[in-house]
Amino acid sequence: MTTINTLSYNVSLQKLNTFGIAAQAKLFLPVQELAQLQAVRDDTFLSQLPRLILGGGSNLVLSDQVDALVLHMCLQGRQLVSEDAEFYYVKAAAGENWHEFVQWTLKQGWPGLENLSLIPGTVGAAPIQNIGAYGLEIQDVFHSLEAFDFASGEVVVMDKAACLFAYRDSIFKQSLRDRMVILNVSFALPKLWTPRLAYADVKKWLEQAHIAQANAMQISQAIIAIRRSKLPDPQVTGNAGSFFKNPVVSAHIRHSLSEQFPTLVSYLQPTGDYKLAAGWLIEQTGWKGRSLGAAGVYEKQALVLVNRGCATGTEVKQLAQAIQADVLKKFGVALEIEPNFY
After folding, report:
1. pLDDT tens string for the chain (342 positions)?
2. Residue 170 designated active-site
3. Marked catalytic residue, from 51, 168, 227, 254
């Protein structure tokens, strides 16, 4: 019979969040099987506590004391479930490391996830944020997921439509936050694969490497190299990756801004709107490389906030708010924060 004897009190979360904030969990449970979640729900005391579902801690800014039951998702396993004429259907457990999973699929000869290489975090967290990079989002290759519902005590299967994916968003950040715990995710990886090479950085890297027709693994290698050149390694410098969403504005607003700021960086969207480069906006306000307390803006990429050594969650929040205020004042554009604060 599975118990919750592995429940611990006052556990340090510093090594379990990529920002490296020295937070403590009031209660902590490493989840290695579904029965543990069921036991938490059935426990009179534990079921009433606020919950924090923790994966790789890569999209999270913690307060110093986390007054909640922290459920650390450690479920492991990955497999090819089935295939048909069009797709390989691949499933991975929530606790699997995302980048390692991507590399595994590529080594098996199942392309499709290469543009999402080197994104920190776990498989279970990927649909929550609808992670994306270099022209690809999770929703583009998503098939379904299984999740435990704390409200009903049942395991439910959710398809793409049920997840309500949007730009860096899903139903798991909205109405189902902390109610549903993702157990595993399945992906439909195309057999008729075509490379996604819309980004100039990727094309440039492949050209410099004298690769005329890149395969999926070569694209992955390019993206890994580009990300490493632009973004800090969380093992060395604490960070949560891109801290702000790229704001989307109407063509009218973009035109008005480009008249005032001719070097404005923007990208036309299928809707006719424009996505503005948040990093460029932040850099124009003078925040690149600056700090507020022990929290700072990365010298190579203004979109990334970093831990200078002993930053608190409060300092990170104050820095983010100061940046938001300056961008709003200069451009009239509101920046939305990507990571979750807890």
Report:
1. 346 778 999 999 999 999 999 999 999 999 999 999 999 999 999 999 999 999 999 999 999 899 999 999 999 999 999 999 999 999 999 999 999 999 999 999 999 999 999 999 999 999 999 999 999 999 999 999 999 999 999 999 999 999 999 999 999 999 999 899 999 999 999 999 999 998 999 999 999 999 999 999 999 999 999 999 999 999 999 999 999 999 999 999 999 999 999 999 999 999 999 999 999 999 999 999 999 999 999 999 999 999 999 999 999 999 999 999 999 999 999 999 999 999
2. no
3. 168
**Phi and psi, residue 259, nearest 5°:** -70, -40
Let me know: does 244 contact 335? Beta carbons within 8 Å: yes
Give the angle subtended at the CA of 266 by the CAs of 241 and 329, to the nearest 5°.
Answer: 75
154 is catalytic: no
- Joined tokens for residue 301: 């990429």
Active site residue 168: yes
Catalytic residue from among 58, 170, 242, 266: 242
Pick the catalytic residue from 96, 146, 315, 338.
338
